[in-house]
Amino acid sequence: MILLHSGYSRARALAFNLLSSLATLVGALLAYFALSQLTEWVPTLLGLGAASMIYVAVADLIPGLHKRTELKATLQQILLIGLGIASIVVVRALAGE
Question: Does 65 have pLDDT greater than 80?
Answer without folding.
Answer: no
